Known about the structure:
With 236 residues, this protein is mainly alpha-helical. The chain has two domains: 158 residues, no CATH class; 57 residues, no CATH class. The protein has twelve helices and three strands. A three-stranded mixed sheet has the order 1-3-2.
Amino acid sequence: MDEGASGNVTIERYDRVESLFLKEGDFAALQQMKTQYPVETRTLIEDVLKLGPVDAPDINTRFLIFFQDSTLQTLLEDVAREYETMDDIDSQLSKAFGQLQQLLPGIVPPRIYTQVGSLDQSIIVGNDLLGISLDKYLGEQHPLYLRYGYSAEQRSMMSRQFIVPDCLGFYLLSLYPLPSDTSIVAHHQHMGKIQHVVNQTLNRHIFDNEYVRQAETQAANLKEETLEQWLRGASL
């Protein structure tokens, strides 16, 4: 795939600036967070960590103190070591979004950045941004995942190879959300559609369950309905 056909994705390493402030108290890094990454910083502080308004007078102190917890310091260190480089993820995301644009013309890849949260959310989507919480992708045998009781099924998806599928899945769900008045079954059916498109985009059966298989069968038999129209429907 040539560059013009790729999604042309470059991951912005916000996590490195964040870590510089939280581990070393570097206020130049804090200033960079606020000027170069204002939306990312607001999202992290207000929506992910829920520390309060980003413009509160003492928010910098609250943010710094929050991350002095030994568990969170360990996460910062482990993320820095595990994700010293992300060139492979850059390349995979560029190819994946290029493929997605072929399946769904008009799709525009979001700006993608990395952060360290507090083991709560894996992918955050909004404001044309997609944030990857690298603390949720440290490998299924990571001691903190075992200590905090993540199930084997949950941990099986908390590793590097699931970053790209999760980015695509959460991004598609932001574009084709499930209507709020649908049933549990309809929810599973809609997620089956999303996961099928991720499988198709990556040309791998990453997700495999009865709803994905139903979606695969129906997608193969679309006639007048486009893939986009099919995704906008609430159920199979």
